[in-house]
Amino acid sequence: MTPESVMTLGGQAMQVTLMVAAPVLVVVLVIGLLVSIFQAATQINEQTLSFIPKLVGVVASLVIAGPWMLTTMVDYMRTVFTSIPALAG
Predict the structure, then answer these.
(1) What residues make up the domain containing 41?
(2) Whole-model pTM?
(3) Which residue ranges in the chain fall short of pLDDT 50?
(4) DSSP states of the chain
(5) Number of domains observed in the structure of the chain
């Protein structure tokens, strides 16, 4: 196993991680921003107000993007497992 192959494998792992995490993180970011704007406009400073909308947003994003996320992870793991003989040999 060469240092180049390790770096390539690590780079691909980071790319897959970012791709899989991005939909949920974007949804939480947008919901947090909207709740913050609402709190600033109404001067309601309740910390727990943003919890339920974020929870609903995360569940909705996992329901919508979950199959794509799972397919992406399975494809990456299949690639890693099939390349083990070439990397070890």
Answers:
(1) 3-88
(2) 0.81
(3) none
(4) --HHHHHHHHHHHHHHHHHHHHHHHHHHHHHHHHHHHHHHHHT---GGGGHHHHHHHHHHHHHHHHHHHHHHHHHHHHHHHHHHHHHH-
(5) 1
